[in-house]
Amino acid sequence: MSGKHTLEELNQLSREDLVTIILTMQGQLDALNENIEKLIEQVRIANQHHFGRKTETMQSIEGQLSFFNEAEAFYDKEANEPEADEVLTQKPRRKKAKGQRDTDLKEFPEDIIPPHAVSKETLDAFYGPGCWKRMPDETYKRLRHEPESWTVEVHTVEVYVGTDGDHQDEFLRGDRPKDIFRNSIVTPSLLASILNVKYVNSASLNRIEQEFRRNGVSISRQTMANWIINSSGRYFAPLVERMRQELLKLPVTQADETPTQVIHDDRHPGSRSYMWVHRSGEFCKDRPVVIYEYQKGRAHELPLAFYRDYKGVLVTDGLQQYHLVEKKLEGLINANCWAHARRDYADAIKATDKSDPDAVRRSTAYQALSRISQIYKQEGALKDLSTRQRLRERQNNIKPLVEEYFAWVKKQLEDGTVPPKSKTAEGLRYSVNQEKYLRVFLTDGNVPIDNSASERAIRTFCIGKKNWMFHDSVRGAQASAVIYSLSETAKLNDLRPYYYFKHLLTELPNLCDEKGNMEPAKLDDLLPWSESLPDECRKPRR
User: Fold this and answer.
1) CA 514 to chain centre
2) Strands 159-161 and 171-173: what pairing?
3) In the predicted model, is pLDDT for residue 1 greater than 50?
4) Strand partners, 274
5) Contacts of 186 by beta carbon, 8 Å cutoff, 6+ apart
6) Are 349 and 369 in contact (CB under 8 A)?
C-alpha cells in the first residue's frame, strides 16, 4: 500500500482495506516521529558538545535547570523576610599571614638593587639643615621574568703531544663532556626547552621556530625534529621501557586510547591510527607512571601484547577489545568506568527542552543520573582512606546503591517506556551489558570507580594534536609516545619537566657504551620517582 490513492480509489476501497491503510500510516508516522526525536536529540547534543560545558556531574546539570525557573523553583509563601542584621552580616576578614611573600619567593635567586637614596641636599631643603635623622630602611620585593636567554658555550680542550719516550708523537686531550649528538650545537638545556614547549605546553615546532627567529636564533623545525626523534630512540626509549616494566608490576593499571593521524605509515591516506595510554591506578601514589604507545589500530591484539604477562586489574572504558583481553589472559581482570555509564544519561538531559525543568526531573535519564550521583557522592568521601577501609565502606554503603541501580535499570528496559533509539535507552543498555565490569570496583579497594585518571593522562596529547594536527611519520609518532611518557610521569611525580629533561640529557649520554647500549640497572637512579634526582628537578612545595 505504498502508492498514493486518489479520492475516487479510496471511495471504492472496502472497510478492511481502509483500516489496513490507516494502521500502516500510523506505523510509518510513529517511526517518523521517533526518527525526528532522535535527530533533534542528536542536534542538541552536538550543539552542547560544541558550545556548552562538557560536564556530567549532577550538580552542574541541576544548576543548568535552575536557570529557567528560579522564581518558581525557590518560591515559598511561608518563608519569613530576613532581618537587617542577617542581610548585612559581614564575613570576618582573614588576616594576611606575615612573611608569606618572602616564603613564596625564597627559592629564587635575588638581585640586590642599589638603594633608592635621598640626597643630603634634598633632606636639608625639606627639613632644614641638621633637622633630620635616618630611620630603618624599607625593603620590598618584586618578581622579574626574563623569557628568553641565550648563551654560547665556548669549550677549550687542552691538547698535548709526546716529544720523547714510549708515547712520542702521541696526542693526549683533556676530558670533555659527552655531546648529545656528535658535532651538534645542541645542549641539554636547549633540547630540554624544546621538549618542554612542545610536549608539555603543546606548541608546534613551527611556532617554536618562529619564536627562535624573533630572538635572532635560526634553528629550523627539521633540525629540531631530528634532535627529538634521535634523542628519543637513543636515550629515552630504554628509560621508558624500564618504566613499563615497573608499571606491569602494579596490582591496578588503567588504559585509554585516542585517534591520531600519521601521514606516511604505508597505508592509504586518512587511515586512522591511535595513541594508547597505560598508567598506574589512580590510588597508586608512591610511583605513579604513564606509558604512551603508538599503534596503527585498536584491535584487541594490541593491548593483548602489552599486557601479556600482567596479573591484576585493568580499568578501561567499555570497549569490547578489553573484554577480549580479559578472556584471553588468565589473571587479568577488566573493570569498567562509571563515568562512561552516566555519559549517555547526561547527554540525554542536555538534549531535552529545559523550559519545563520539572518534566526533566521526572525523566528516566535524570533519575538514572541521580542514582549514579549518589554512588559517586559516597565514593568521593573514601579517597583518603586505606585500601582495606575503602573496600569495607564500599561493601557497606555503596554496594546497596549499585544493587538498587541495576535492578531499576532492568525494570526500565522491561517496561519499554523509553524510546529504544534514544540516548537514555543507550545508557540503560550500556549499564546492563557492562554490569559485570562495573561491579569490579566493589571487590577491590585499589580499583577506582572510573577511568578519569587515564583521560587526564592523555589530555595533554589531545590538546597538542589540535595544534600540530598530525604526525608526519611512524618514527615521529613513536618518538612522541616516548617523550609524552616521560613528561606525564614527571608531572605525576611532582617534577618540573624542563629540569628533568635537562638532567636526563646530561646523564644518559654518559651511560651509553660505544655501541649505544645502556645497562638497565643504571637507569633506576634516573626514574621519575628516584630519590637521587637533583633538587632542581622537583617542584617547589609551598
Assistant:
1) 39
2) antiparallel
3) no
4) 259, 295
5) 180, 227
6) yes
The whole-angstrom separation of Cα 62 and Cα 303 is 38
pTM listed for this prediction: 0.80
| Cell digits of residue 69 | 525557573
* Listed residue (154, 155, 153, 148) closest to 216, CA to CA: 148
pLDDT of 71 over the 60 cut:
no
What is the rounded distance in angstroms from the CA atom of residue 450 to the CA atom of residue 437? 11
The proportion of the chain whose per-residue pLDDT surpasses 90, expressed as a percent, equals: 51
3-state secondary structure 13-45: CCHHHHHHHHHHHHHHHHHHHHHHHHHHHHHHH
Give the chain's count of helices (H) and strands (E).
23, 8
CA–CA separation, 454 and 336 (whole Å): 12
How is residue 202 written as a grid cell?
603543546
pLDDT for 527: 96
Give kind and range of the element (H or E) at residue 471.
strand 471-473
Rounded CA-CA distance 437/325 in Å is 13
Sequence-distant (≥ 6) Cβ neighbours of residue 412 within 8 angstroms: 364, 368, 418, 428
Q: 645502556: which residue's cell?
A: 518
DSSP 127-172: H-TT---PPPPP--------------------EEEB-SSTTBT-EE
C-alpha cell of residue 238:
630504554
* pLDDT at residue 66 tops 60: no
| Polymer length of the chain | 542
Up-side HSE of residue 89: CA atoms within 13 Å toward CB? 6
The secondary structure of residue 199, as a DSSP letter, is I
Distances (CA, A) of 453 to 5, 53, 272, 289, 448: 62, 20, 24, 11, 9
Read off the C-alpha cell for 353.
Answer: 527542552
